[in-house]
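Rather than argue in generalities, we reproduce a single protein record, letters for residues, whole numbers for local backbone shapes, just as it appears below:
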Amino acid sequence: MAVPTTIAAGTPADFSKLRQEIVEAASSLGIDKIGFTSAEPFTALKDILLRHREKGFESGFEEPDIEKRVHPELSFDAPRSIIAIAVAYPSKLPNPPRSEPGAYRGIISRSSWGRDYHDVLRDRLAKLEAFIAQRVPDARLMSMVDTGVLVDRAVAERAGIGWSGKNCAVITPEWGSWVYLGEMITNIPFASDTSIMDQCGDCTICIDACPTGALVGPGQLNSSLCISFITQTKGYVDDAFKLKIGNRIYGCDTCQIVCPKNKGMNWTHQPELQPDPEKVKPLLVPLLTMTNKEFKEQYGRIAASWRGKKPIQRNAIIALGNFKDVSAVPILSELLLSDPRPEIRATCAWALGRIGGEEAEAALARAQAKEQESAVLQDVEKAVKAMSRSKLNKME
């Protein structure tokens, strides 16, 4: 391919053939959709991010410097364009194992069903980088996946990958919102794609279905209320959220499951992203005694492992409480009385209070006598009161 003497002197027309070659090669590189946009600042995004911060809606996981999120040139010298990619993942579990009394199961969100998508997309972007470098040896390229400074959804939307839905997910016409996003900044001046018009219309199904009201408006998410965010935290979980979590041990898919644009969408063509049913819908009780080594061996290659085992074990305890699983009382009692992590002890207290029974009551009484951590003791006492109220209600 003929290229200008220097990339800096080139125009989009000079790289139109390369652009077409990239589009045609995308599927062979494991990329389901690809789009191009300029590297101009995301000026309209800045006010949105500032308001989001002022309202306390941030998760704390995002890049703290808003200027870097808006201005690609702060991370890459003299950028000319950005390539956005999307890789589709499955939404349906083949032959899902069922929860049964004494063998209840949790569920991990679809975004963590296969190999860690960060690794998968980095692999895809690395292949794309090699493809471009082979044709333009002096091209400068910088890839990002999720943890990069740019806002993946904003890049994807401007590059024509899809539109930003009211559930804050990018929705593609071809793959629905079941896609992972990544991008690559480059000094090559590619022509931009046209953005896709919003197709949500008057639909508010996702907003109405959100279990906690975290979708506070179209495209507005209060992260502190979002179950997906809450399941990834490491601390105490408010009782009201415990009930809403149900049996989710990582993430939440409700706002995508109910989306009409996702109806019938399920993608099985990416081998690394296909789920192991026993891993993504695991038995809850075995999770509670899993060692760090066992956790890494079983879950270390999926995205849900990034926060470690404690949040998943805490969420498993919440799920057992919501199931009111009597068979879990012995292990919950043991953890309540001996686990060194206060968040785990407190959550066990809540679960035992929900389950009830003489064995649970005895464990709570022992904990009430020995617990030294005030926050845990408070939850123990709340569980004792909840159990007493439940007994009274049954007598009436």
